């Protein structure tokens, strides 16, 4: 068993594996600890929990817009990750709600950026994940966002912005390729104007990384408090003072199980608009 673990987990190292075995940190599917005397069984899954980083709590609650036996619709606050990832594990929607609601199989059907607030669809049990995730994969969900940015003179019906967006692995910012065939499109409409600021509705027709943020930046009106565009800012992870003024405002779809039309809207207000 020791050789098996060392081969599967080379980055941990043998001394660390010995410590984790002694502490009962490796368990089987039923939660029973694995020890050096546990017989080897082929095709058996072994689980362990890595040491978690110290996380600053995100001081905002998660709203619940709807819940039934299949789905839960959350109203995600700014600065909270959708899923456990990197240095954000406990401070994620999935981990928080699994703990608070006692729902160990709860998971997201899609994702929102950590700095984006708004409507997030989750499935309550493993058996429903595929059905609802496929709605997003096959572009069967209507999504609209609210944005606060500098006021632009747009026609009443709005405009459509298109570009080719490329996101390179390991690079935080995505970028647009001038003159290349577009792979992203966003409809943008000005809803209201207050002095130099405007409240917009943004409807993404494709789903590229940071698409709405890049398209507003292309128009010369980067979204208020955007730490990535036009410049990458060195913002502390525990600085909650300047939330990105981007909200997933509405989500609607035909339920793949019941066939009913469903529509959900965020109850939050963008801080710079009120």
Brief description of this entry?
With 274 residues, the chain is of the alpha+beta class. The protein has 5 helices and 14 strands. 28% of the residues are buried.
CATH superfamily of the largest domain: Pseudouridine synthase
The main sheet comes to: 10 strands, mixed
Could you report the average pLDDT, rounded to the nearest whole number? 90
Task: Count the domains.
Answer: 2
Please report the number of helical segments. 5
Shape: globular
Name of the CATH architecture of the largest domain: 2-Layer Sandwich
Unreliable runs: 1-11
Q: What is the CATH first-level class name of the largest domain?
A: Alpha Beta
CATH topology description of the largest domain: Pseudouridine synthase
> Cα-atom Rg, whole angstroms?
22 Å
Share of residues in helices:
10-25%
Instruction: Work out the number of β strands.
Output: 14
């Amino acid at each position: 068993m020791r050789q098996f673990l060392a081969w599967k987990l080379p980055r941990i190292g043998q001394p660390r594996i010995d410590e984790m075995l002694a502490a009962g940190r490796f368990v089987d599917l039923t939660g029973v600890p694995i020890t050096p005397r546990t017989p080897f069984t082929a095709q058996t899954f072994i689980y362990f929990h890595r040491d978690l980083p110290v996380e600053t709590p995100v001081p905002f609650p998660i709203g619940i817009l709807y819940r039934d036996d299949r789905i839960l619709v959350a109203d995600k606050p700014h600065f909270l990750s959708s899923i456990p990832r990197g240095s954000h594990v406990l401070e994620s929607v999935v981990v928080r709600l699994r703990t608070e609601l006692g729902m160990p199989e709860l998971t997201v059907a899609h994702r929102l950026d950590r700095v984006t607030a708004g409507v997030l669809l989750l499935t309550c049990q493993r058996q429903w994940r595929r059905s609802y995730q496929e709605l997003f994969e096959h572009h069967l969900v209507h999504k609209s966002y609210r944005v606060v940015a500098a006021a632009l003179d747009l026609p009443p019906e709005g405009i459509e912005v298109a570009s080719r967006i490329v996101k390179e692995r390991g690079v935080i910012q995505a970028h647009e390729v001038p003159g290349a065939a577009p792979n992203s499109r966003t409809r943008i409409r000005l809803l209201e104007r207050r002095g130099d600021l405007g409240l917009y509705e943004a409807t993404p027709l494709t789903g590229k990384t940071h698409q709405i943020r890049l398209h507003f930046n292309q128009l010369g009106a980067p979204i208020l408090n955007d730490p990535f565009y036009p410049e990458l800012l060195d913002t502390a992870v525990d600085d909650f003072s300047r939330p990105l003024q981007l909200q997933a405002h509405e989500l609607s779809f035909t339920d793949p199980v019941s066939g009913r039309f469903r529509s959900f809207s965020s109850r939050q207000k963008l801080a710079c608009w009120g």
